[in-house]
Amino acid sequence: MFVRLKRSGSPGAVREYLQIVESFREQGKVRQRLIATLGRRDELVATGALDDLIRSLTKFSAQSPRNPNSVLIQPHHSQVVRETSVPRPPSSAVMGET
User: Fold this and answer.
1) Which of 17, 64, 66 has the alpha carbon at shortest distance from 37?
2) Distance CA 89, CA 5 (A)
3) Strand ranges (DSSP E) for the chain?
4) How far apart are CA 94 and CA 7, in angstroms?
């Protein structure tokens, strides 16, 4: 599951909505199923509801702040509070070269 930003409206009055979406396979093809629409992004941010939801969800995360190797992301600002060392593949593997 992931959160998707969905835009709608005319070019002068675009609205952005946050949605929870699930990916799955059906007959060998990847499909997406809308689980819930959380609401308009601007309203969720202005009221603090988005930050409250993020804090609430972190209670159920396997990477809790109590784990010294976890990455803790502050709601809304998306700033890394504690960086961890993550091994990265060689650049040739990323580019598809062998």
Assistant:
1) 17
2) 29
3) 2-8, 15-26, 29-40
4) 31
Record the pTM: 0.60
- Scan for tokens 């804090």, then name that residue: 55
CA diameter of the chain: 50
pLDDT tens digits for the chain (98 residues)?
Answer: 999 999 999 988 999 999 999 999 999 999 999 999 999 999 999 999 999 999 898 888 777 665 555 555 555 544 444 444 444 555 444 444 44
Q: Token match 């609430």: residue?
A: 56
